[in-house]
Automatic annotation (TrEMBL), chain A:
SUPFAM superfamilies: P-loop containing nucleoside triphosphate hydrolases. Residues 6-256, 356-607 form the ABC transporter domain. Gene3D superfamilies: P-loop containing nucleotide triphosphate hydrolases. The keyword Cell wall biogenesis/degradation does not apply. Belongs to the ABC transporter superfamily. The keyword Membrane applies. InterPro entries: AAA+_ATPase, ABC_Ni/Peptide_Import, ABC_transporter-like_ATP-bd, ABC_transporter-like_CS, Oligopep_ABC_C, P-loop_NTPase. This is ABC-type dipeptide transporter. It is found in: Cell inner membrane. Its EC number is 7.4.2.9. PROSITE patterns: ABC_TRANSPORTER_1 (PS00211), ABC_TRANSPORTER_2 (PS50893).
Automatic annotation (TrEMBL), chain B:
The keyword Transport applies. Signal peptide: none annotated. One of its GO terms (biological process) is peptide transport. GO terms for cellular component: plasma membrane. Its main location: membrane. Belongs to the binding-protein-dependent transport system permease family. It comes from Thiorhodococcus drewsii AZ1. Keywords: Cell membrane, Membrane, Peptide transport, Protein transport, Transmembrane, Transmembrane helix, Transport. It comes from the Bacteria. This is ABC-type transporter, integral membrane subunit. Residues 242-452 form the ABC transmembrane type-1 domain. It is found in: Cell membrane.
Length: 673, 467
């Protein structure tokens, strides 16, 4: 390795006031060579973003760099004046952020915003600026750049906005691009586009990329080297290939094991007990000691030093103190394997009669215009959705954002009044039932939402939150009976019953999601609609929740309608899959059939875009052009045909009928062979 | 004496009861207590709260009305026709020391020349001595300054003593509750970085007490803010105006609150035709010029009152009804702003996951609104109330100035400013009525605005998140 482009030594950053400072970055060392992609991996709150902001010297108020050195291309960044630093930002190092929606000014055209960046970094004449802006837009793969220059941010889709952000970052020809979760807010197909764009740009310009992410799959597909961060420190650095072949630090190992996948579906996912320690304390010994399975007495007393392994690989763990590499046992236990067969047995009995059937379900939102609020159009969020869910089984409803899967879930629960079609729960139609009549079915159908922070009233005690259904449906009218039941429920989801007397904000995301599950379980439902229940959670916490959901299914015989965009979770949890595109199910079948042999071109593209950690399993990414069309103006004929690689003239004429491929597997496409 | 319960008095008592009940309820609920604790921990919040409490105690004292028994030997008891308040009793000296006409602050002579009988016969035009102001001085020109200074000193001394007594009582109470010596408590209060800014609180309290005692000491012999055209003490008038100002500021919100909350939440929660109807209602109401509506209503009331003079037993009662009516009509014109805010917030909350989860659990609409929506819009209600308060106090002044405010017989800053119109036009200028009204109103509105800022910061969830 030649002289590194960026060299960070002992960087320590502190946040908060003097009274209770937290060291969000503590003694961080890293080196990035020119032209390489270096990934900084970690769960939320471990200090990855603060590291990036420290490098750019853009810390929020109250943040300061206490010690350490940042050498970038031979200059010490921490000694530069603010004026000199401004030249480095954008010119030497550029940064793109997670949320493209909020990073662009909505009242300026994207051309003007890129031109601003160009003007700052290159003293070129007014006339040539536009040329350069168009060049930049073209280089980030935006079609018709001459026209897009005049577009406002709201006229662009999320993926396009992120491209514009990248174009702005490229304006100064940076030598290092810091990408802070650049694809977290994007869908997988768009994520694949943006990641391959970053890869191409790196190859063309030779810049280095510091990729900050929590997604192991993204790291595996994009980066050359990586560093794993935990509680403000780097615990392991390695080459990507070696890391995924066998992580050295127990934390990295656990992270890998807690990833859901098809192979793990018959067991439980590994969990990391406890939570990331808060950073406002003084640490003694290893920061991971409290959650580590291989903890030794020495871990709690002495801070582990760096151990240099082969090929520049370094790890910070006492297990490597001896010369013998430690042996890890895989901690997937088979305790629930028997339970799983129980599910299979039960499902065989009841397989004939679906518990829930949606037939041609439609949810349209009218668009009102003008003084008299005439209806001028319909947003067809769900447009003819049909699915069957059998008792004790899990049906995963998969799709990208905007395809109507959440609306479908709410339509099934009658939280939104469907426009047409029917929802049969045990052969009784729920559509059109009034608020009062529907109450009889509320007990049977429950829901868990995506954002555990928004799904509990912040002004209610946890006990009241969980007991709300018991009270509303008159199951436990007495206060004492309710309290007893709430305590049982909290225990069922693995929480301390004491939690009932506390407020939701005192709990972490994973704990809140458990409370939400307890609330849904309170009325003893038969079916739970899980609307992306783990997508706001970290990998290790996601594993806890998925295990819990699986256990509960076995114990209580629940059925789940699992709405998600995460294919790995589907493979782990579901028995059946339905893939949605623009308000309709394009393919459905059992999980093995659909995941192993996707037949619809959209399903294929979707699955191929999912980044995978297993090097052997990677498929060639089928790149989809453009974005999902607006549901207010769906394309004629097959909704997918404008983006479909197989499209023919037939596709534009009519929507393809459902074609059965086996008893359970069917898809809606003219080109199935 | 026999108590007299005016309409506004009853409403003030109701407001006090609501406030105390809410205080007791909030004290047991952490999420309600936390923002108020943040208010108390801010220096400005504490200081302005004490100033506002000073005003409020005047208003409350001034709201206990009764008629005094007239002493008459034998026979059944007879009550004086005059309705007085506790506050009037406390200031009976000020109330009764009437001069002939204008006199300047601290003056010993009238502000206008009058015909004075010379001792040796004949008449001359001179500034006569005041009947009460500085009447105890033998030689006003020589003694006045010295006398005023002594009184200031005595007043300060009394104020300090009173302050020490209050601090001592507070120390004793706090020490007993925490079972520690008063010295420890005192040291704790004085150490920097205490949670509650005790030093600020005690300093403001001390300042108020000293000022009050000095004013009381001086007012015993002088008209410290002069007298008005009919010789009434301006200081007394200004103090009496406090109740009017506070009433307008608080009762108006009390009147408009139910409508704003009910309609705002209903519009946002039920949407559809309910929303259309309520939006139509407040858009229409909002497009009627407020001042015209108020003028029309007040003029109608005036006509009604003069036609039914027999149904009012006293002038005070009549003025009181007009004040109440003014509050109502101000409330009717001012609920739309809050209603609009609440509609927007309810629209947003309705889609919140926890509301959806409740719906999925089969919770009824009414329970859902009271349990989930109302508590989560309460911060908006409180912020709006506090912000509106100062605006309403000022609105009263403006309305009285154009003669559609409170009854002309009622003491109010607006009426004082209205009469100042003529006083400022005459030569030499009579400035003290206007200055006194301005000073008291300014202090109240400033304190209310600063307090509102603190309350908003404490309640606004977005501001809290960035700290």
């Amino acid at each position: 390795m030649t002289e590194p482009l960026l060299e960070v030594e002992g960087l320590t950053t502190q946040l908060g006031d003097e009274a209770s400072p937290s060291r969000v970055v503590d003694g961080l060392d890293l080196q990035i060579a020119s032209g390489e992609t270096f990934a900084l991996l970690g769960e939320s709150g471990c200090g990855k973003s603060m590291t990036a902001l420290s490098l750019m010297r853009l810390l929020p108020p109250g943040g300061r760099i206490l010690s350490g050195g940042v050498r970038f291309a031979g200059t010490d960044l921490l000694r530069l004046t603010e004026a000199e630093m401004r030249r480095v930002r954008g010119g030497g190092m550029a940064m793109i952020f997670q949320e493209p929606q909020t990073s662009l000014n909505p009242v300026l055209t994207v051309g003007a915003q890129i031109a601003e960046a160009v003007r700052v970094h290159e003293g070129i004449s007014q006339a040539r600026i536009r040329e350069r802006v168009v060049d930049l837009l073209r280089s980030v793969g935006i079609s018709e750049p001459e026209r897009r220059v005049e577009a406002y941010p709201h006229q662009l889709s999320g993926g396009m906005k992120q491209r514009v952000m990248i174009a702005m970052a490229l304006a100064g020809d940076p030598r290092l691009l810091i990408a802070d979760e650049p694809t977290t807010a994007l869908d997988v197909t768009i994520q694949a586009q943006v990641l391959s764009l970053i890869k191409d740009l790196r190859r063309e310009t030779g810049m280095a990329v510091l990729l900050i992410t929590h997604d192991l799959g993204v790291v595996a597909e994009t980066a050359d080297r990586l560093a794993v961060m935990y509680a403000g420190q780097i615990v392991e650095t390695a080459e990507v290939a070696e890391f995924f072949a066998g992580p050295a630090h127990p934390y990295s190992r656990k992270l890998m094991e807690s990833l859901p996948s098809a192979e793990k579906r018959h067991g439980r996912l590994a969990m990391i007990s406890g939570r990331v320690p808060t950073l406002d304390q003084a640490f003694q010994g290893c920061r991971f000691a409290d959650r580590c399975d291989s903890v030794m007495p020495i871990c709690r007393e002495t801070v582990p030093e760096w151990h240099l392994l082969e090929r520049g690989r370094r790890v910070r763990c006492h297990l490597w103190d001896t010369d013998v590499p430690p042996a890890f046992e895989t901690s997937v236990d088979d305790e629930s394997a028997s339970g799983h067969s129980g599910v299979a047995a039960m499902s065989r009995d009841e397989a004939r009669e679906p518990l829930l059937r949606a037939i041609d379900l439609k949810v349209h939102f009218p668009i009102h215009r003008g003084l008299f609020r005439r209806v001028v159009g319909q947003v067809k969020a769900v447009d003819g959705l049909s699915l069957d869910l059998h008792s004790g089984r899990t049906l995963a409803l998969v799709g990208e954002s905007g395809c109507g899967k959440t609306t479908a879930g709410k339509g099934i629960l009658q939280l939104i009044r469907p426009t047409g079609g029917s929802v049969l729960y045990r052969d009784r139609d729920l559509v059109g039932l009034g608020h009062r009549k529907m109450r009889a079915y509320r007990k049977e159908l429950q829901v868990i939402f995506q954002d555990p922070y928004a799904s509990m009233n912040p002004r209610m005690l946890v006990g009241d939150v969980v007991g709300e259904g018991l009270q509303a449906l008159g199951i436990e009218p007495s206060r004492a009976g309710r309290a007893r039941r709430v305590a049982e429920l909290l225990e069922l989801v693995g929480m301390d019953p004491e939690a009932a007397r506390r407020y939701p904000h005192e709990f972490s995301g994973g704990q809140r999601q458990r409370i939400c599950i307890a609330r849904a379980l309170a009325v003893e439902p038969r079916l739970i609609v899980c609307d992306e229940p783990t997508s706001a959670l970290d990998v290790s916490v996601q594993a806890q929740i998925l295990n819990l959901l699986k256990d509960l299914q076995v114990r209580l015989g629940l059925s789940y309608l699992f709405i998600t965009h995460n294919i790995a979770v589907v493979a782990y949890l579901a028995q059946e899959v339905a893939v949605m595109y623009l308000g309709r199910v394009v393919e459905r079948g059992s999980v093995d059939e659909v995941l192993d042999d996707p037949r619809h071109p959209y399903t294929r593209a979707l699955f191929s875009a999912v980044p995978s950690v297993a090097p052997g399993k990677r498929r060639a990414v089928i790149r989809l052009e453009g974005d999902m069309p607006s549901p207010s103006h769906p394309p004629q004929g097959c909704h997918f045909h404008p983006r479909c690689p197989l499209a023919s003239s037939e596709c534009a004429r009519a929507y393809p009928p459902e074609i059965g491929l086996s008893d359970s597997h069917s898809a809606r496409c003219f080109h199935l062979d | 004496m026999t108590p007299v319960l005016l309409w506004t008095d009853a409403l003030i008592y109701l407001l006090l009861v609501i406030a105390i009940a809410f205080g007791l309820y909030a004290a047991r609920h952490e999420h309600l207590r936390a923002p108020w604790r943040r208010v108390l921990r801010s220096r400005i919040g504490m200081a302005t709260l004490i100033v506002l409490a000073g005003y409020a105690s005047i208003a409350v004292l001034d709201s206990v009305h009764f008629r005094l028994k007239v002493d008459r030997p034998g026979g059944e008891p007879v009550y004086a026709p005059e309705v007085l308040s506790l506050f009037d009793l406390a200031l009976s000296g000020l109330r009764e020391r009437q001069e002939v006409t204008y006199s300047a602050p601290f003056a010993t002579h009238l502000y206008v020349k009058e015909a004075v009988d010379l001792p040796g016969g004949g008449v001359t035009r001179a500034y006569p001595r005041l009947i009460h102001g500085g009447a105890h001085l033998a030689d006003p020109a020589a003694d006045r300054v010295g006398d005023i200074l002594t009184r200031v000193l005595v007043g300060m001394l009394k104020g300090l003593l009173l302050w020490m007594a209050v601090v001592g009582a507070l120390l004793w109470l706090s020490g007993r509750r925490r079972a520690e010596s008063w010295r420890v408590t005192w040291a704790g209060w004085r150490s920097p970085g205490t949670e509650i800014p005790w030093t600020t609180a005690l300093a403001v309290l001390g300042g108020l007490l000293v000022l009050g005692c000095v004013a009381g000491e001086l007012a015993a012999e002088y008209h410290i803010l002069g007298t008005d055209k009919v010789g009434e003490d301006v200081f007394y008038q200004t103090l009496k105006s406090v109740r009017t100002g506070l009433l307008i500021g608080t009762l108006t919100t009390l009147v408009m609150l139910p409508a704003a909350i009910l309609l705002g939440i209903a519009a946002g929660y039920f949407r559809g035709w309910v929303d259309d109807l309520i939006q139509y209602l407040y858009t229409t109401l909002n497009s009627i010029p407020g001042v015209l509506l108020i003028a029309a209503a007040i003029l109608m009331l005036q006509v009604y009152m003069s036609n039914h003079a027999e149904s009012f037993s006293s002038l005070v009662e009549r003025a009181d009804l007009r004040l109440l009516f003014l509050c109502v009509i101000l409330g009717v014109t001012s609920w739309t702003g809050l209603c609009r805010l609440l509609r927007g917030e309810s629209l947003k909350l309705r889609e919140a996951d926890y509301v959806q989860a409740s719906l999925a659990l089969g919770v009824g609409h009414f329970t859902l609104i009271t349990r989930h929506i109302l508590p989560n819009v309460m911060h908006i209600v409180i912020i709006t109330l506090v912000l509106d308060f100062s605006g309403l106090v000022l609105a009263e002044a403006v309305l009285s100035y154009v003669n559609i405010g409170v009854d002309p017989t009622m003491n109010s800053w607006g009426n004082m400013i209205n009469s100042a119109r003529l006083e400022l036009a005459r030569d030499p200028v009579v400035w003290w009525s206007l200055a006194a009204a301005f000073l008291f109103m300014f202090v109240l509105v400033l304190a209310a605005n600063l307090f509102a800022d603190v309350v908003r910061d404490a309640f606004d969830p977005r501001i809290r998140a960035t700290r």
